[in-house]
Amino acid sequence: MDNLHITTLAERPELAQALDRMPDTWPEFVLEDLVGWANFPRIAVEFPEFVLVATGPDGSVVARAYSVPFELNAPGRGKLPVGGWDRALLWAFSDLRRGRTPDTVSAIEITVATGHQGKGISGRMLAAMRENAGRHGFGEVVAPVRPSGKHLRPALPMEEYARLTRPEDGLPEDPWLRVHVRAGGVIDSVAPVSMTVSGTLEQWRAWTGLPFDTEGPVEVPGALVPVHCSPVHGYAVYTEPNVWVRHRV
């Protein structure tokens, strides 16, 4: 898209409401992750300098990018966590509370508004996120990537899916992983428990429109892996794997 203007929320605080109201295509159940539910809204308040917002020629918000700083090399850490997205959020706000000096920036979300996908905006937001981290003195951005095509192959283990490449150029088969690698990112590892959504069968029926009446795995539109359903005990649990990608700034 031409005339795309990208700035931080710290520079444009008046865009906070428009940022929240930007139409997107996230599956409803993903928004029920309790770690995200409790912490995601805090990013705009406590880390506005790490929130990017893109506006089009008419001033409307067409994309957003959230990131958080944390101390990867703190005692007991040192490597990217298997807890992925959830753990990055928890580390960031724990470090903020304890006054630790962050050494790494983690991507949390890059979303393009409904109707504006397919225009290369996500790649530009990723580049802007890296540049923003560099301006703040960081040397690395890490990203717990949610591969955009994985929901089409929910039964395939993420370890296998993340390593699938195209024969013509050796780039990842997955479109969103491919954007990251083209931008210089390196696939590091899989975070097998990056996000967890649990709920009653009634809640899952409301979120998905599916019956949730059989024991075992249930394939849900938009889910990267099957949801485990237990009618006997009255609940279902979704544990989402993501793929850690490292970007040098």
UniProtKB/TrEMBL annotation:
Q: Which domain of life is it from?
A: Bacteria
Could you tell me which Gene3D superfamilies the record lists for this protein? 3.40.630.30
Q: Which InterPro entries match?
A: Acyl_CoA_acyltransferase (IPR016181)
Q: What is this protein called?
A: N-acetyltransferase
- This chain's source organism reads Streptomyces cavourensis
Q: What is the lineage of its organism?
A: Bacteria, Bacillati, Actinomycetota, Actinomycetes, Kitasatosporales
